[in-house]
Amino acid sequence: MTTIIGSQASADANRIITLGGPVTELVYALEAGDKIVATDTTSEYPAEVLDLPKVGYIRQLSAEGLLSLKPDLIIALEGSGPTHVLETIQAAGIKVVEIPKLVNMASVATGIELIAAQTNQQALGKSLSTTISAQLKKQYTAVKDLPEKPSVLFLLNTGHGGPMTAGGDTAIDTIITYAGAKNIAADLQSFKPLASEYILGNNPDYILMSKKSLEISGGVEALVKDPLLGKLSAIQNGRIVTLDGTLLFGLGPRTIDAVETLSSQINKQKL
After folding, report:
1. CA torsion 45→12→87→5, rounded to 10°?
2. Which position among 1, 6, 29, 111 has the lowest Cβ density within 10 Å, counted as fewest Cβ atoms?
């Protein structure tokens, strides 16, 4: 994890740009949302952010667009960029703080601590981190010793090419694990395109998708008719669980909602 720091002091940060939906959500959870002047296009929660200016996609930013909003602090999820754009922002004297990918409790605790320090909300940050950790530990305790854990395959349809999945080192992998299931793609790392052989050779009990991705795919009927995905028993039997995409790509205050929803869906019937 890398933190890039410019010359501004955190106490002076009254015009913040957030990059990355999970980061934006944490800033609001730490009651500093009123200082956000713009976000990227992946920031869709809470509803207030929809009315804020957008600086573009998190990995396709421009220095001119960011500078035009006169921020004194940019809080960026790891992977934001291009890197040279953030370096240009830093060279202009604007503080840029990078938050690690929020894929497990350790990274969430670190992310909250960093954001809390920049927004002078350290006490609230400690409380939030403790609450999230306690919620997930309680949930995991309830499911970790289940004798049979259903397998789940996450599918992401970007509208370009074949589907992708989420392997290890992703928030989705953590959500599946805490829900009492096995991520069938856990042997992969991060987000990877799915080969047809891999899909057919790893027939999951359930499919997990974001609501938007299922919509892009054309809905359940389109999946059933798909010459490849339609061969999966989970799709043939309608065992498709959908969650709001804002819950899937970074852990945070609402992760327990995603875990409990997935857990209730995959455990409501015996396979």
Report:
1. -100
2. 1
- Chain segment 213-254, per-residue pLDDT in tens: 999 989 999 999 999 899 999 999 999 999 999 999 999 999
Say if CB 85 and CB 57 are below 8 A apart. Answer: no
Written as one string, the DSSP assignment of 13-44 is --SEEEESHHHHHHHHHTT-GGGEEEE-TT--
Question: In 3D, which of 175, 178, 173, 153 has the Cα closest to residue 164?
Answer: 153
Q: State how far the Cα of 173 lies from the Cα of 169, in Å rounded to an integer.
A: 7
Query: From the centroid of its chain, how far is CA 58?
Result: 13
Give the predicted TM-score (pTM) of the model. 0.91
Encode pLDDT of 55-112 as tens digits: 999 999 999 999 999 999 999 999 999 999 999 999 999 999 999 999 999 999 999 9
Strand partners, 206: 152
Across the beta sheet with 36-39, the strand order is: 36-39, 16-19, 73-77, 95-99
